[in-house]
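Module 6 notes. Inverse folding takes a fixed backbone as the condition and produces residue identities as the prediction. Think of it as a translation problem where the source language is geometry and the target language is the twenty amino acids. Below is one complete input and output pair. Work through it position by position during the lab.
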């Protein structure tokens, strides 16, 4: 019997790879104001500050290596008798570096550049600057291809279709503070999927999950993947 699994990941899955989370003690939102570095208004006000913020995160992400949690999800995708879609809120590429193929970046990706004038997308250089000309229209309006607050996350229809067909929904390393991702568990529960949270501490939506395992992702994710492969491939 094949199993359809949708997995939502957040900053917590990359924490043990050395990439900062947002809302933990000393996290990114304790160091920077969201309205300055993660909104279209902030970018219009001071594009240099925004590029500086994402250039630093792009450099960190380029140096970072996947951890046991990323590798466990890649193993699950390779061995599962069924389908696996990873919907990540993360803009790093650690799922892909670990070997996962079916990854959807709903908040965009640091490795991507976007032209605010014509919508052209290309591979971001290591360091971006506001005067970089767009390769397609030459306008000096290039930005990181990252979804900011007040903007629409990418591929929501594809995500909703996957949730509607899911047998299992797993949420890993996210605080459940940001919508629409924080609502995925309700959608999964509504269609009768089994819901699992793997997190360092209970998220804002913990009570909506049928199964919760607390601990670092490098422990909880490999354990859960091993149990799931034993169950579905038996
Ligand atoms: N293992 C598992 N979970 C962890 C670990 C770890 N080692 N370290 C931290 N966590 C958990 C925290 O307990 C917290 O619940 O990861 C979560 C991180 O929460 P946030 O910092 O809010 O990150 P995230 O949920 O991904 O934020 C969602 O908000 O700012 C926007 O666009 C940004 O994509 C981001 C979105």
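Target side of the pair, the amino acids:
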């Amino acid at each position: 019997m094949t199993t359809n699994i949708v997995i939502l990941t957040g900053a917590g899955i990359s924490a043990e790879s050395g990439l900062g989370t947002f809302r933990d003690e000393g996290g990114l939102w304790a160091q920077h104001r969201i309205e300055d570095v993660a909104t279209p208004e902030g970018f219009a006000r001071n594009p240099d500050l925004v590029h500086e913020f994402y250039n630093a995160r792009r450099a960190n992400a380029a140096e970072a290596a996947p951890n046991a949690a990323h590798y466990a999800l890649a193993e699950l995708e390779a061995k599962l008798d069924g389908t696996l879609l990873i919907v990540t809120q993360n803009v790093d590429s650690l799922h892909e570096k670990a070997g996962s193929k079916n990854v959807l970046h709903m908040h965009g990706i640091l490795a991507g550049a976007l032209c605010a004038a014509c919508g052209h997308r290309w591979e971001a250089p290591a360091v971006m600057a506001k005067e970089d000309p767009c390769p397609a229209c030459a306008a000096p309006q290039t930005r990181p291809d990252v979804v900011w607050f007040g903007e629409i996350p990418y591929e929501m229809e594809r995500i909703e279709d996957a949730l509607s067909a899911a047998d299992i929904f797993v949420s890993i390393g996210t605080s459940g503070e940001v919508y629409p991702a924080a609502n995925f568990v309700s959608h999964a529960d509504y269609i009768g999927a089994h819901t699992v949270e793997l997190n360092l501490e209970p998220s804002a939506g913990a009570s909506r999950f049928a199964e919760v395992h607390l601990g670092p992702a490098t422990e909880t994710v490999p354990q859960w993947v091993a149990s799931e492969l034993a169950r579905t491939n038996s």
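Reference fact for the lab report: The mean pLDDT is 96.
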